[in-house]
Amino acid sequence: MKLYTKTGDQGQTGLIGGRADKDDVRVEAYGTLDEANSFIGLAHAKLRQHGELFPDLLSELIVIQHELFDCGGDLAAVKPRKEGKLTEASVTVLEERMDVYVEEAEPLTKFILPGGQEGAALLHVARTVVRRAERHIVTLAKQEEIPAVALSYVNRLSDYLFAAARIVNYRLGEADVEYERSADVFRSK
Predict the structure, then answer these.
(1) In CATH, which of 1.10.10.60, 3.40.50.300, 1.20.1200.10, 1.10.3720.10 is domain 21-171?
(2) What region holds the Cobalamin adenosyltransferase-like domain (predicted)?
(3) Is 112 helix (H, G, I), strand (E, B) or coil?
(4) Where are the domains of the chain?
């Protein structure tokens, strides 16, 4: 099997059901999800060094990588399907896991700087790439019909990655660095 097709040499790429310019907002959206997926893979590789501390997180990140492929495929379909591969159940799982991580970590009242342990920093990078993908998906949704779950999933995923980054630092004994000019912005229920 050859990895190259030469069909993209003129600046277009294949979609599910058609072709588009490589800078089309649809391609930007699913391409940015692919970029986020790569950073999640890098974070996963780093966190395996401390596998005994992160069995839950490691298995969740693999599931998320599959879901990002599903979401990208849903966005790559020129004719939107009634239902994509990604489902609301995936959004619910992210919310449930976030709640567990928020409960486990130290309470948060102020903005924090992205960073800390390398695995946490990589999850923060993935989070910001997911936010960029979300902006592309919002733009795409203004132009074309897309599965609604795609937008809610990426919105929740960025929050999940924030919570996951904090858990990595917490379990490795590294305190979050609060943004020094932050007011109290997070309140407990």
Answers:
(1) 1.20.1200.10
(2) 3-167
(3) strand
(4) 21-171
pTM over 0.85: yes
